[in-house]
Amino acid sequence: MAIENLDPFSQIIGQTSAVDLLKAAIKRDRIAPAYLFAGTPGIGRALTATAFATILIQDHKSTHRIHDRNHPDLLWVEPTYLDRGKLLTASQAAEQGLKRRAAPQIRLEQVRSIAEFLSKPPLESQRSIVVIEDAHTMAEAAANGLLKTLEEPGHGTIILIAPAAGNLLPTIVSRCQLIPFYRLSVAQVQLVLGKLGYSDLQLQILDLAQGSPGTALMAIDKLAEIPDEILEALEQIPAQPIAALTTAKQIAKDLDIETQLWLIEYLQNYFWRLYQGRSLHLPQIIQCLEQAHKLLNGYVQPRLVWEVTFLKMTDLRSGRLAIV
Questions:
Q1: CA-to-CA distance for 289 and 170, rounded, in angstroms?
Q2: Secondary structure (3-state) at 117
Q3: Residue 248 belongs to what H/E stretch?
Q4: 232/254 Cα distance (integer angstroms)
Q5: Residue 6: how many other CB atoms lie within 10 Å
Q6: Does a structural domain hold residue 162?
Q7: How far apart are CA 3 and CA 163, in angstroms?
Q8: Bigger pLDDT: 31 or 2?
């Protein structure tokens, strides 16, 4: 199976090991029935899956494009929300203004659609490809339903994308060839983002990225969503209880839960950079924010969570527990 002169893998930055493994399989024409692309989000797993699928099912006569996920021999599966009997991806839910109380997941209905898709012969290629994003979100019933399909994929290849092998059932992992993905260096993250037009980035964005260009892009988007007055209020820990309560009220009113959860991670990084070496109470500040994260994930009333968190942090800043 020949690779085109324009190598689809050429756009992948920093994942030499994964690309070499996949290229070797293509060169030997020994494509595994299933792969597990394991690594932290935002480092090129989905992009590599797209490149791999492009090579495996490319057809010069086809009018369909893999990058649009619009090829009849490609099924791309994302976690979904269930809303009034309909399955909605995260982007679809956002477009419809759906209030999300739980994380999306790969559902049994989707696993059944995978089995149905692979039971039919490919239309334009030698094989069908299924890509399952965030495969670790499968509930037990869905995971067990996928096992049989992994054992007998027919003329198909299944690519599961997950943070780590430990996030999936061992019986699923044992049926997949593991392709590890690694965090990028700061220079590689800057290279990726530079190609996307982000050449001048705050150091904190690069810190938050932790080797993941996707995480950096999310941070850029999230910061743009947060009103300037909230960010300005959080440049320092509130000095007075009234300021703490006012900021808590505004955060709970203006930001959705996902953005609030992200804001906690942002503040942990921000205060660490601001107070490192200047505060004996820095670990307690970080712990306050970590506790807030757990409470928000536990569906505690957001305004109450922020009020308690900021009041504790205000006490740390007070004369009784001075931090600066």
A1: 34
A2: helix
A3: helix 241-254
A4: 15
A5: 8
A6: yes
A7: 28
A8: 31
Tell me the residue length of the chain. Answer: 324
Alpha-carbon Rg of the chain, whole angstroms? 23
SS3 155: coil
| Residue 92 and residue 139 in one domain | yes
The C-alpha angle 110, 112, 114, rounded to 5 degrees, equals 75
d(CA 154, CA 148): 11
In 19-110 the beta strands, taken as DSSP E runs, fall at: 34-38, 74-77, 80-83, 86-89
pTM of the model: 0.82
Structure tokens at 144: 């067990």
Three-state DSSP at 258 gives: helix
- Looking at the structure, do residues 200 and 290 belong to the same domain, yes or no? no
Q: What pLDDT band is residue 321 in, cutting at 50, 70 and 90?
A: very low
Distance (Å, whole) CA 34 – CA 194: 33
Query: Does pLDDT of 45 surpass 50?
Result: yes
d(CA 38, CA 184): 14
Place of tokens 């199976």: 1
Lowest mean pLDDT among 3-7, 258-262, 271-275, 301-305: 3-7
Task: Give yes or no: residues 132 and 219 share one domain.
Answer: no
As for how many domains the chain has, the answer is 3
Range of the domain at 300: 228-324
- Residue 15: name the closest of 41, 42, 44, 35 by CA: 44
> pLDDT per residue over 191-242, tens digit each?
999 999 888 777 888 888 999 999 999 999 999 989 999 999 998 888 899 9
